[in-house]
Amino acid sequence: MIEIVITDSMQGEAYVEFVLDSKGSKNIQKAQEFGFDGKGQFFLQEKKTLLVCIDGRHVDFVREAGANIARFFKSLKFGSIGIKAFGDEALDYALMLGILAGWQDSGLYKSNKKEYALSKVYIQGDSALGKVAKRAKIVAKSLYIVRDLVNTMPQVATPTYLLQYCKKLAQKRDLECKVLDTKDLQKERMGAYLAVSRASVNPPYLVHLKYKSKKPLARVVVVGKGLTYDSGGLSLKPSDYMVTMKADKSGACAVIGILNAVAELGLHIEVHGIIGAAENMIGGDAYKPDDVLFSREGKSIEVRNTDAEGRLVLCDCLSYAQDLKPDIIIDLATLTGACVVGLGEYTSGIMGYNEVLKKDFESCALQSGELMACLPFNRHIKKLLESKVADICNIGSSRYGGGISAGMFLGEFIRDEYKDKWLHIDIAGPAYIEREWDINPSGASGAGVRAVLAFIENLESKQDSKKSKSKKA
Ligand code: BES
Ligand code: ZN
Ligand code: ZN
């Protein structure tokens, strides 16, 4: 990672100038003499200055520009650059996060690792920015962790690998780490989860991480779909759709990144991370369409498609999660292609029963820089999950509304007292895109991390002001 240093004077071997109004900048006029059209960025050699045009003082533009600055200087020989701060905390945070998150390379397995000259970014601004820089660094580091894990090939990144990673992280960040192996999952009667993983030579693990704050203001449980590979099972995916299915563990990896961040930030919220790691494979022992599974919540499930496996793992994990008596329960999952068709690749779907909670989460996500939109449940789609042989079917009987029917399937495993406390986030679109976009390199993005963090931090400050109000009263 490159280092960000806050300074009171302009430093660095080269500079960056943000341009909001091209007419007001002398450097832009110079650049125009060289044929610059005033859009995007231009490096003015004689001033060693990268001119960066943005459409306005908006965090989204600044964040993306930050990433593009980092990418640009990869090809030059400067060891350090200097940028003047905006003097606005949100914009300066966006700038720093953009630089750090945009700096990460894809190409984990290239033999010729690129070496870059740039190692320091000086931000000229108030010393109070040091705190902002620290937060940007923690969040960026968490994104790096998630992206590296998700990009790791499925031959290596098995459920055991995720488990070992969690154990190491738990030690480093002083988290509790409880592990449920196959025997434990049997004891817990997690019949749906176990069926999915049965044909794999790599055994499943449910990992339960816990960050215990000293004075917790609330308890949040985050559950992640951790399919280290999704071949589709006997309802085998066509070859073209199987490629990138190493990324079906993105929800679980996001949970790991979130736990890293909350621990480093020292938030006053108790956060549990539940990782449902398994591999969906084929074999003589594979679970089949026509099988009926018995879930931990006691509901029987008719399997009609083994490629709708994520919801089977999650329904048992959500059951376990509710036993922890959470104030909020959020699951993150690359659950459906339908959600990607509906919202596009860059946007995650937010589902649940509590309209206020959904809207609240959406606004936290958008503020954090992640695109998310609410998808509405309805009673007609719920009917599509009816089964003639069991309590529920693992796919809807219509090919439409697949993102919502998957969400409503999960909803059937949420007990009445938790219905209003639960959110399902389908990150199938933005979790993994084979093309660089926004602050993300091609491959894994770390989707879900920023949104959930923003939500938890928002919850922390809401609970905190509630507490101080009740003290006064
Ligand atoms: N892991 C996939 C969903 C997915 C698709 C994630 C594309 C990322 C990108 C999930 O397990 C799956 O296969 N879902 C099926 C459900 C269907 C069988 C009802 C789907 O979306 O096609
Ligand atoms: Zn699947
Ligand atoms: Zn899947």
UniProtKB/TrEMBL annotation:
Q: Which UniProt keywords apply?
A: Aminopeptidase, Cytoplasm, Hydrolase, Manganese, Metal-binding, Protease
Q: Where does the Cytosol aminopeptidase domain start and stop, copy by copy?
A: 305-312
Claim: Iron is one of the keywords in the record: no
Q: Is Cytoplasm given among the entry's keywords?
A: yes
Annotated EC: 3.4.11.1, 3.4.11.10
Catalytic activity entry: Release of an N-terminal amino acid, preferentially leucine, but not glutamic or aspartic acids; Release of an N-terminal amino acid, Xaa-|-Yaa-, in which Xaa is preferably Leu, but may be other amino acids including Pro although not Arg or Lys, and Yaa may be Pro. Amino acid amides and methyl esters are also readily hydrolyzed, but rates on arylamides are exceedingly low
Subcellular locations according to the entry: Cytoplasm
Identify the cofactor(s). Answer: Mn(2+)
Instruction: Cite the binding residues for Mn(2+) 1.
Output: 230, 307, 309
Q: What cellular-component terms does GO give this entry?
A: cytoplasm
Binding positions for Mn(2+) 2?
225, 230, 248, 309
Q: Which residues form a coiled coil?
A: none
Task: State the SUPFAM superfamilies in the record.
Answer: Zn-dependent exopeptidases
Q: Where are the transmembrane segments?
A: none
Known CDD domains for this protein?
A: Peptidase_M17 (cd00433)
| GO molecular function annotations of the record | manganese ion binding; metalloaminopeptidase activity
**Any Pfam family hit:** Peptidase_M17
Question: Where is this chain primarily localised?
Answer: cytoplasm
Which GO biological-process labels does this protein carry?
proteolysis
The residues responsible for catalysis, as annotated, are 237, 311
PROSITE patterns, per database record? CYTOSOL_AP (PS00631)
- Superkingdom as given in the UniProt entry: Bacteria
This chain's function reads: Presumably involved in the processing and regular turnover of intracellular proteins. Catalyzes the removal of unsubstituted N-terminal amino acids from various peptides.
NCBIfam families per UniProt = PRK00913.3-3
Which family is it part of?
Belongs to the peptidase M17 family.
- This protein is called what? Probable cytosol aminopeptidase
Q: Which organism is it from?
A: Helicobacter equorum
